[in-house]
Amino acid sequence: MSTPTPTPSPGQSPDVRPSASGWDRATDSEKLPAEIPDPEVVQVPQQLREEIEGHMALYPDSTSAALPALMAAQRVHGWCSPEAIEQAACVMRVTPASLAAVASFYDMLETSPVGRHAIYVCTNISCSLRGADRIYESMRDAAADEPDLNVRSFECLGACDIAPMASVDGVYVGPLEEADIPRLIDDVRAGRPVLAAKQLAHRPCADREANA
Amino acid sequence: MKLLLKNIDEPGLATRAVYEARGGYEALRRALTMQPEQVHAEIEASGLRGRGGAGFAMGKKVSFLPKGAPHKYLVCNADESEPGTFKDRELMQKCPHMLIEGLVIAAYAAGIAEAFIYIRGEYVLQADILDRALAEAREAGYVGQRILDSEHTLSLVVHRGAGAYICGEETGLLDSLEGKRGNPRLKPPFPAIQGLYQGPTLINNVETLATVPAIVTMGGQEYARLGTETSKGTKLVSISGHVQRPGNYEIELGIPSREIIYGLAGGPPDGRKVKCWFPGGSSAPVLTGDDLDVPYDFDSLAKAGTMLGSGAIIVADDATPILDVAMKVAKFYRHESCGKCTPCREGTNWTVKMLERIAVGEATPMDLEIMASVCENIIGNCLCVLGDAMAMPIGSIIAKFRGELEETMQAARLRHEPLLSEGAHSGADAALAAQGAPGPSGAPQPAGPYQEAL
Ligand SMILES: Cc1cc2nc3c(=O)[nH]c(=O)nc-3n(C[C@H](O)[C@H](O)[C@H](O)COP(=O)(O)O)c2cc1C
Ligand code: SF4
Ligand code: FES
């Protein structure tokens, strides 16, 4: 990337904010406007194209498909790489920049390469009151040598009833104890259902008078 | 009285067959024999207030929609990201048809033909279940063209989010649903006038919409007998933190909070007491162990200086340092601020930094004053209430636990005193200097670069 010559902004000499480069070099006026990727040039895997087109057809305005399209591209490429974004933009007929702006807003869209298994450990308040911060540390340590595991601390995942908890490739498990961690990681590695006995999916309602 | 959790754990309830066997979709059939205005009137008569956070009357919101506009939308808010809240999750997972039925009826009452469910991306299981239920409902003619041979037509799409609390705020949600970053919009215009794709839009929470079939079945007036004068009906309460039986409970609005925290959820572990509790998610100002007799309903909680919010009770027992609670809350809002308004973006960050200074012994009691004034300057000065949602609980913690915060501060200071007196770098000095206030050393300090203070 070439560094554009700084353009002094009106009423402000460049040396007033020597370190604030963003102000003085906001745009590169030499650069051509971003273009919608040319379908003749950009190769998009057939399945991905169909999936994105399927989403676009659901909405009165196809731009609404941005999130599902980025999620689909991320599943193919592992993260929202420039290539993933270019492909999604090509199918959606929008500029890559408009999708890159969207991708950087959302926690589940990865803007740098990560391991293929997403392990979100909730460290928000209800989980933290029940020891989540330690669970997160231990999980991170246990996965330190596993490049395939993307261990992240996450805000409330909406399952504080099984605090402390984690989402493992979308499967909610809890309440977690330190002793569960090796098993959890083994399960992920082996492609087994994760901590089968602790999955939220099988948990009955807490209200004893429900089902009456 | 259980309306929402009636058969919640019945095997197969997520399928159309079992849901129908339990009387499911009867309310829709009944509603379709009535005029839309009559259905709307039943919802008004029920007094149902929104279950998503603001507690606004659903019937009234419907009446704000312009009559006869061609493209109106119904959006179900299934973003459920308020810390402590997990009620919509259980409903969608175990009884998805109840939500779909409620949506179809609400759309009929409001004259709407296009609907969306915006579900948070983390709820993979629940979104898959909704997709399956929706396919079944379409097949049976409950959703689609000319529903059950009536004039009512409704398209419905399940839209998955991708992880952002602010997309639960109704206008942030709309931008997100339009495929943009989830930045809230300036109001007015309110979504009922100009919402999704610029069209009039009705936005309601999952639990609100899932209650509609029960209202049609019972009749609005009958429903209105439940609860209190101004908080009618039953409510799902998600309770978590230091209680023995965390989970979702369906209560009649107006019962004493103690009955929920101790009676239903078993209270804190043996030997512990309630130190503080959030009555309506982490955005609600905290109450203490002295407030357990406050009736659990919209107005009693408002009178007690807090709010019912999403109906999520978070309990912290007396072994919890209050600074930890404040820190978790502040960090959450800092992370989730969309960054559009300066008071929210900077104020949440400042608050975290100041709490961190308390923790490392660099704070002085004056910092509590500054923190309280940062909070005051957020409230009412932003596009949406995310900033307020940090300022209010933090403000309440400073007001109610000032003594403990000062002790924590002092203890941390004593631990770090040697470091400070050696003239080690002090973030506290720099921050005070940036405020133009004299540092602890007495003399005014030269204004340091902003970044360093943070
Ligand atoms: C920061 C913020 C987050 C919110 N998150 C949610 C949410 O996750 N789910 C929800 O139903 N309402 C949420 N709300 C409230 C919505 O803006 C809106 O009031 C609600 O969906 C209306 O539905 P109701 O009238 O049925 O309650 C949030 C509000 C704010 C300010
Ligand atoms: S108050 Fe905060 S979250 Fe809301 S619009 Fe402003 S910056 Fe964004
Ligand atoms: S705080 Fe962890 S799931 Fe809610």
Query: Helix count of chain B?
Result: 19
Biggest interface and residues each: A-B, 51 and 69 residues
Coarse morphology of chain A: elongated
Class of the domain at 117-202 in chain A, according to the CATH hierarchy? Alpha Beta
Cα-atom radius of gyration of chain B: 24 Å
Model regions low in confidence, pLDDT < 50 over at least 5 residues of chain A:
1-20
Number of domains of chain B: 4
Terminal Cα span of chain A: 67 Å
Order of helices and strands of chain A: HHHHHEHHEEEH
Spatial sequence of strands, sheet with the most strands of chain B:
6-5-9-7-8
Can you list the strand order of the major beta sheet of chain A? Answer: 2-1-3-4
Word description of this protein:
The complex is a heterodimer of chains A (212) and B (454). Chain A has 212 residues and is an alpha+beta fold. Among the domains of chain A are: 46-103, no CATH class; 117-202, 3-Layer(aba) Sandwich (Glutaredoxin). Chain A is built from 8 helices and 4 strands. Chain A has helices at residues 21-24, 46-56, 66-77, 82-92, 96-103, 125-129, 132-142, 180-190, and strands spanning 117-122, 149-154, 166-168, 171-173. In chain A, strand 3 and strand 4 (171-173) form a beta hairpin. In chain A, helix 2 (46-56) packs across helix 4, helix 3 crosses helix 4 and helix 4 (82-92) crosses helix 5. Chain A starts with 20 loop residues before the first helix and ends in a 22-residue tail after the last helix. Chain B folds into 4 domains: 16-223, Rossmann fold (3-Layer(aba) Sandwich), CATH 3.40.50; 234-310, Ubiquitin-like (UB roll), CATH 3.10.20.600; 322-409, de novo design (two linked rop proteins) (Up-down Bundle), CATH 1.20.1440.230; 420-453, no CATH class. Chain B is 45% helix and 11% strand. Chain B has helices at 16-21, 26-33, 36-46, 58-64, 87-94, 96-110, 124-139, 170-177, 206-218, 220-223, 257-264, 298-303, 322-336, 342-360, 365-378, 386-400, 402-421, 427-434, 450-453, and strands at residues 73-78, 114-119, 155-160, 201-205, 234-241, 247-252, 274-278, 287-288, 312-317. In chain B, strand 7 (274-278) and strand 8 form a beta hairpin. Chain B starts with 15 loop residues before the first helix and ends with a helix. Classes of the chains: A alpha+beta (212), B alpha/beta (454). The interface between A and B is large, with 51 and 69 residues. The structure holds flavin mononucleotide, iron/sulfur cluster (SF4) and FE2/S2 (inorganic) cluster. Flavin mononucleotide is lined by residues 50-54, 56, 77, 79-82, 166, 168-170, 203-205, 208, 384-386, 389 of chain B.
